[in-house]
Amino acid sequence: MAIAPTPLAALGARAREAARVLAVAGADAKDAALHAGADLLVQHADAVLAANRRDVARAEDAGVAAGVVDRLRLDGRRVASMAEGLRQVAALPDPVGEVVDGWVRPNGLRIRRARVPLGVVGIIYENRPNVTSDAAALCLKSGNAAFLRGSSAAIGSNVAIAAALREGFAKAGLPADSLVLVEDASRESATEFLQLRGLIDCLVPRGGRSLIAAVLEHATVPYVIDGDGNCHVYVDAAADLDMALSIVVNAKCQRPSVCNAAESLVVHADVAAEFLPRAAAALEAVELVGDDAARAIVPAMAAATEADFATEFLGLKLSVAVVADLDAAIAHVRRYGSGHTEAIVTGDLAAANRFTREVDAAVVVVNASTRFTDGEQFGFGAEIGISTQKLHARGPMGLRELTCLKYVVEGDGQVRD
Amino acid sequence: MAIAPTPLAALGARAREAARVLAVAGADAKDAALHAGADLLVQHADAVLAANRRDVARAEDAGVAAGVVDRLRLDGRRVASMAEGLRQVAALPDPVGEVVDGWVRPNGLRIRRARVPLGVVGIIYENRPNVTSDAAALCLKSGNAAFLRGSSAAIGSNVAIAAALREGFAKAGLPADSLVLVEDASRESATEFLQLRGLIDCLVPRGGRSLIAAVLEHATVPYVIDGDGNCHVYVDAAADLDMALSIVVNAKCQRPSVCNAAESLVVHADVAAEFLPRAAAALEAVELVGDDAARAIVPAMAAATEADFATEFLGLKLSVAVVADLDAAIAHVRRYGSGHTEAIVTGDLAAANRFTREVDAAVVVVNASTRFTDGEQFGFGAEIGISTQKLHARGPMGLRELTCLKYVVEGDGQVRD
Q1: Do A246 and B415 touch (CB under 8 A)?
Q2: Contact A413 B368 (CB under 8 A)
Q3: Residue B1 pLDDT exceeds 50
Q4: Lower Cβ count inside 10 Å, N or C end of chain B?
Q5: Which of A103, A251, A410 is nearest residue B379 as measured by Cβ atoms?
Q6: Looking at chain B from residue 216 to 255, which residues have their Cβ under 8 Å from any Cβ of chain A?
């Protein structure tokens, strides 16, 4: 007797079926579907905005914080930009089918590795409804079905966006189930979603710390974590201090709320007396907390606690440490860094080489802002997230990171001795 | 107040420290350590064999099955072969430092991806003591510390092997903790091992189904699964039947107990009447179970159950199905395959192309035995396992699969607008 699948597993099975079609769909078919999705989204913009207004009103009635409501809110411009995002993804090269390497064995076997879709990509995300279309676009272009689970606050918006895209995909001849949205936004469904082994080939959580913690605790499906960015800028003894100042200010202030913003400034003792007062002046809008050596130079700075050095502030606060040498700088980064992005500013080649070699992070930057750790900035055209784990993908994830490799072995009847 | 780490976490921290040294060790230093380890293993062979005799005696007293005792037992030849294995790994190219790709952005940023060690590789394994030296060698060569947790049955052998290798590594100037062995072989320590997040960068379980199930259930560290191989050979209508016979016999019988052996034969209806009687004769030592169509041709065959088609027999048993066409063959493989290795025998290019494209497995083989899915056979020189998952590594895993990629971004003071 077959056991009836749960409603969520039945949804996953629909995504799985669609994934089989998508896996062998050509780039032309996928691009046509993305454009059709964009057209339908524009066509149904009124319905999307009406649903969004209901979500926003419900959130406001429930007393949700203004910042959260802002992330939830759509307007005509945002919907147009979602449609434009679909067209931009259509314009990117198709990662599927790339032959990564290949060789011939002495017995004549021809072996090659080719890029193929993962299958079903699960995305669990928070309030931004634009993730629905962004994620669906990247999944479809890379030949994967998108199995999406957004928040209850955005459910009406997400349903309306998904309906438009599904209609577009189907109109273009690809399965509507290329995008399957979970409409049951209960906590139980979230946990079940994380455990749909066999139905989700790769899970990418998009959200804050509590979501990541839930994935680490409950997920039994394979996942890629987009974790904290406790990023450092180390100003070396041999740094061009004007360059260092410009980098520190950019890394901290250009967009403080994101994971690739700097959270900590580490300065070599030889240049601290000259650099720190200049930095403090340039960072006047930033709350600085420092160690004893830093405070001896800039007394206005409050004392940094151990927790400060370990914290991703995601705002206008910066921890400051003075170190005796490059070894101490590397040790500091090792102790407090989260493996996201670590930068050195130096004119000394040996220092740059040691830093890039010895610092264990997804991205190590020499003489540039930490803010460049980003799929667009890296030239990927779009990103699904920034991985802080080591397996599968590390750093900005584009279309390529939504694929895996398949070995194809061709022979002429070879058998093993 | 700092919380004292558990004994297991303290061991992991020692491996983590060693990993930092190994990450920047050159190939010469690593190769010298592998040779020194081999020398010391040979030098301490008597101690290893004495410890092994005690393990074997204890297992026999406990009434452990003969096959298990056999896997546990070492002799002079096996120890010599372990030492030779260390030297073979030393002779392989170092995967660390390879620049996989790189490009320049319009703003002048130079971006490259370089291969770096994972850090600490955890291996949890069963009774074969040779895994202790094999795994340590592959981890060290790829710049990783090996954090090993074997079975209680082999604990004395493992301790003796690890002691010899650690002495060799230290003698050659690398940390003894490049190999850290867990000596507490309790079930609790196994579960704790699977959950040492932050101390194990990648876990590779080496063992049977219950070990894999424990990893899937309990592990919170990142892992690569070496899972079941329910491998099929599909004999197409356009197959050279002599070639097909040779491949089927090799895939099933050359070494039936391993994951890349065939477990199922799928035959196109057009050639079944000719092929199946020949296959049955050639596979006379094999228990065949088939569907109705197969049994109509070879009546001696018992009826295959649904469970038979889903089972990795790991022995001289083979399920047989007759299919109407290539679509049905692909559907059969999709339904019952485990994503390990799937083979087609055909002279029809279109059939070969559809099979390689539509079958979702780590390795798809055309006109050769499934038994070639193997690190040695692929030319990797050695393997740590065969991944049946899609993330990070898929198929045979060699030294390359024990590394990850790090982005290095170099600029001249670039900041983001």
Answers
A1: yes
A2: yes
A3: no
A4: N
A5: A103
A6: 216-217, 220, 222, 224, 240, 243, 246-247, 249-251, 254
CATH code for residues A7-226: 3.40.605.10
Report chain B residues whose CB lies below 8 A from the CB of A246: 413, 415
Is the CB of residue B357 less than 8 Å away from at least one CB of chain A? yes
In this predicted structure, the answer to whether residue A185 has a pLDDT above a threshold of 90 is no
How many C-beta neighbours within 10 Å does residue A22 have?
29
Q: State the Rg of chain A over Cα.
A: 24
Closest CA to A16 of B335, B352, B330: B335
What ipTM, to 2 d.p.?
Answer: 0.94
pLDDT at A1 over 50: no
B3–A contact, CB cutoff 8 A: no
Assign a CATH topology to domain B231-376. Answer: Aldehyde Dehydrogenase; Chain A, domain 2 (3.40.309)
pLDDT tens per residue across span A73-117: 999 999 999 999 999 999 999 999 999 999 999 999 999 999 999
Reported pTM: 0.94
Cα distance from B390 to chain A (closest Cα, Å)?
6
Q: Do A360 and B23 touch (CB under 8 A)?
A: yes
In single-letter form, the type of residue at position B286 comes to V
Q: What separation, in Å, do the N-terminal and C-terminal C-alpha atoms of chain B show?
A: 44
- Cβ–Cβ below 8 Å for A364 and B220: no
For CATH 3.40.309.10, list the domain ranges present in chain A. 231-374
Alpha helices, DSSP H, located in B92-154: 130-141
Using a CB–CB cutoff of 8 Å, tell me whether A105 touches chain B: yes
Res. A2: pLDDT tops 60: no
Mutation pick from A99, A100, A414, A417 vs chain B, by most beta carbons of B within 10 Å, is A414
**CATH for A231-374, among 3.40.50.150, 3.40.309.10, 3.50.50.60, 3.40.1110.10?**
3.40.309.10
- CATH fold of B7-225+396-408: Aldehyde Dehydrogenase; Chain A, domain 1 (3.40.605)
Rounded to whole angstroms, how far apart are CA atoms A146 and A119? Answer: 9
Structure tokens at A249: 């200010």
